[in-house]
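Re: weekly structure request thread

Next one in the queue (433 aa):
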Amino acid sequence: MQTKSGPGRKHGERSAPDRGELAVPTNPVIMAALRAIYAGGPKNRWRSDSYGRPYYRHAARDGSVSLFFDSPPDFKSRFHPYYIATPRMDFVYAGKIRQIVSGLSVETADVFLILMSRIAGLHDPVNGVARIGLEEIARLRGVNLRHGRSRTLFEDFRQEVLRLADMRLTLLWKDYRGGGTVSLGRERPDRLLDMLDMEHERDGRTWTAFRFRCGQALSHFLDPEGLRWIGYYSRALLRLNPYTDAFTKKLGTYWIMLGIIAGKKGQQPAATPKTILDFCGETVHGQAPGRTVDAFIRAHERLADIGVLESLPVLEPPDRGRGYFGEWLDRPLTVKLTDRLWHIREAPRARFSPKRRRQREAAASAPSTARELQANPALIRQLRAERRMRQEELAGSLGVTRQTLSGYERGLRPLPEDKAIVLLDLWQRGERR
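Done, posted below.
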């Protein structure tokens, strides 16, 4: 592993290859944060507001997320001094924040994914508090420390964690449960992560650990509905060198995150090179398109070598004649992820209080006949809760609209017998369609 202090200095060696996986969630906030991180660095693609302060905005079909930095005062060794709010100091302050953005890297994204894996492993990801130390981050990154190098390495990781702690966001997104849209952080921007660093000292040894939990916007997508969006992230990808294999790591992260979404529908991920490059924050070389194509192909082959991709599509353009590049950028590609990566992981079950547990145990048991479902429409909602299904999914299984299913659940319209039979079969087989 190389540090940011120079390409020639190495802090550690890689351990033996690990084909294991980390559980990670994916949702609009996580996807937007990864985009923002990849868009930073020396080739900064963040925009600036009227005061020169950088921000990143991701707009999609279902809404938009804006991310920016608002660093706290200098507590000891942070990025900028405490400043007085004057136009001149605002300019200096904006310049300091630009330094933070230029420090974003694939390593920042790696640390972010490691933190998210701890969130995904909590019994209650919405309200739970995760813990991690710098040694654990180094282990998950696959780095064996050399004598005398750990201090500098840990400082690198510490700075990456603190960058994430300084990230703020606002969000306007489709409300998947109640319809309409939901706005978060408009009046008071939300933290991506609520984080507290702790320094321990014992027997002359000092080490740093972090306690952290989701910000409100992130936790909004990690309720029982959002918990189903937890998949697997390859440790083999996490342990690639963040400098020599940076593009491979970004491209692999995109396919895995997209695969979690596609896997929920029983599909394989599909995208165009243009969409992939935009997510990765990569500049398209219009005057030297062959460089982009070659790097794209090499990165996919590397992903196949480390076991992330099981099969590759045809990546080479039919020919490299005049005008081929535009067609190649818009050509749909479908990859096959290794089976253990694209399957959706069962979400960890929250620990309930004794009172809540008694309430759940007292809930109606699974119906034995279709007539019971027709007589008690509330059982339909219970089915969705137990299977962690959205109304759109269950409606699709029944061949009706979401509005029609909502009418069934609320008893506003009678549940037809044929639909009740399908629901009963789904319940008894315990499958998620």
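The chain has a mean pLDDT of 79. Residues 73 and 82 are 5 Å apart (CA to CA).
Next request, please.
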